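To assess whether ligand presence alters the predicted conformation, the chain was also submitted together with DI6. Input:
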Amino acid sequence: MLNRVLHNATVATCITGSEPYGLIHNGAVAVKEGLIVWCGAVDSMPDELTALPMHDCEGGLLTPSFIDCHTHIVHGGHRAGEFEQRLHGATYAEISAAGGGIVSTMSATRAASVESLVATALPRVESLLAEGVSVIEIKSGYGLDIDTELNMLRAARKIQSLRPVTVKTSFLGAHALPTDYNGSKDSYIDEICIPALEKAHQENLVDAVDGFCESIAFTPDQLERVFIKAHALGLPVKLHAEQLSLSGGATLAAGYNALSADHLEYLDEDGVRAMAKSGTVAVLLPGAFYTLRETQHPPVEMMRKHAVAIAIATDCNPGSSPLTSLLLTMNMACTLFRLTPEEALTGITRNAARALGLPDRGTISPGMIADISLWNVSHPSELCYRIGFNPLSQRFHSGAEL
Ligand code: DI6
Ligand code: FE
């Protein structure tokens, strides 16, 4: 049923206006052919819409469905053992040096078939969907050879065909240097990363191109070569930047009109200015901050001052953020980063859509795809405030009731 009017609801449109959250009290949303055609106070609804089937929301809250704009949700294995080792005193760096970390996930991912990558990702995907998620971004980056990078992206595409979710893929060949690669980081970029990107693009597996800019990963110069190839292929870019140190990644990304720069704990004001100029979204990842017990906070106040759009995401990955809850991510963003609940909600709706280049999602307004969630709460701040409680009552995906 793709035509209906959702009524008897408070509507958080997530459009900036006079009301916080773009709230409409006693609101209604009209959906036709899976698109939102009208939204407003129920007493101002145009007469012709009253002929549509009516869906009583019983006083609940409607929001745009959530968008997790940064995940590594497809991967082999897990790293619970490293979690234990860290609690016994080992550091993330020591574990990596001993063959753990990203490399251990790489080995497990290479050993997995596409089918098993899909099968192990699905429970994590379902955990997100159960909390009103309609769009998930999924990165490659644990294959680090041509075949496995492609397999990760094939698995990501497959997930969209198996569940009511929209998947956007990001190619992250420049995530880490595989330890079994006999060559330099420069030759890895030329011999593996760029050829894998070309092949993945030929198979239509890539929606955006990502990289990890950090002393333990790749330099701005190396990543720029990947970005040049991305632009030549007509693909937008994004970047893991300034997560562990200030490396200049955000400024590089802004120079290539990146959709987003992500993490950003060590970002400085020049980087914030560059992102403001290019309209690059700042994606903050409180799950990684929490798991790594980071103490450097992302410069949220500076982002507000320069009007950089802020999104938040799970960064779901087996090492630094084994997190599959956007509700908890919102709570963490408020408590750890001092985002307001309104910023947190905007961060997983309107701004997350921008971080993925999706102009037709992330708000409740005419012309948007009807990805809408109904919550058994009376005010949107409740979505951030509770910890470990899921008040989702219903989700509509492209207007279809699930
Ligand atoms: N930043 C991160 O936090 C993850 N990747 C990245 O570029 C870490 C991934 C892992 O430890 O498996
Ligand atoms: Fe990440």
